[in-house]
Specification:
103 residues; alpha/beta; Rossmann fold; four-stranded parallel beta sheet; 28% helix
Length: 103
Amino acid sequence: MRIAIFTDFFLPHIGGVETSIFHQQRALLAAGHEVFVLTPPMKGAGIIDDAAENVIRLKSPVNIRFDGMGIYLYNRNIYKTLDEFKPELIHFETEFNMAALAI
């Protein structure tokens, strides 16, 4: 199954939500699913290879950051990216801006 996980917070920023989503993605990948995390750009303690980790960074038309985390604001062109991705299941692990996009 092709799964999209939408979240406002992800690696390399370190926190509980980020760690939970990382392990959830790993478990779904181990079960044979194709899993992508859709999130704004993040700064953090380390770096990750977005392509290798199946991470799609969604950039806002306006660059807004809080504590090293990008804040996603609606961009109507994002639907082109989502149409190319063609997810079969959408999961959102947030109640903020990325949840509105997922809905």
